[in-house]
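TASK: fixed-backbone design
INPUT:
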């Protein structure tokens, strides 16, 4: 139930964002409308999770490892693109290149900061899935990112991190 409904929601979200990208030229208005679409979809997804329990640990892991990050990455991407679009210096090509190189440096530093988790993400590993993608897991470990879980029912130790990897 959760998989089919979330796949449909994601498809609708991505179509809506593509339409918006083609129609809306103003960066701020595009960001506002994009975030509204993403937040609405995330809220529907959250409600779906609240109403329907996962059949087993594997389906919960799949949801928080793949499904939720596929939605949340759009929120991160839209925000990052707005920041880049509006921060790009006018005129001088050298300043623009320097600005974009700085943005790439920021992204590279992020991947280095979370190098272990990024390798885990790229390799599609599953050894730590019980620690990374099940709700309510509290463990102190060097292999866990320092992330606060604001919503215990809709957040795991690494779902946001995987969304950020997808967005970048």
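OUTPUT:
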């Amino acid at each position: 139930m959760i998989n089919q409904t979330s796949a449909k929601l994601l498809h609708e979200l991505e179509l809506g964002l593509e339409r918006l990208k083609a129609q809306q030229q103003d960066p701020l208005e595009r960001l506002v409308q994009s975030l509204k679409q993403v937040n609405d979809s995330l809220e529907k997804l959250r409600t779906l999770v609240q109403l329907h329990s996962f059949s087993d640990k594997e389906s919960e892991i799949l949801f928080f490892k793949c499904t939720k990050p596929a939605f949340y990455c759009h929120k991160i991407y839209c925000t990052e693109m707005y920041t880049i679009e509006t921060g790009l210096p006018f005129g001088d090509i050298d300043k623009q290149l320097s600005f974009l190189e700085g943005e790439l440096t920021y992204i590279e530093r992020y991947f280095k900061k979370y190098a272990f988790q990024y390798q885990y993400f790229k390799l599609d590993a599953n050894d730590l899935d019980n620690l990374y993608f099940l709700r309510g897991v509290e463990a102190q470990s060097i292999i866990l990112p320092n992330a606060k879980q604001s919503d215990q029912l809709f957040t795991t130790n690494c779902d946001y991190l995987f969304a950020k990897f997808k967005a970048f």
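COMMENT: Residues 57-87 form the longest helix (31 residues).
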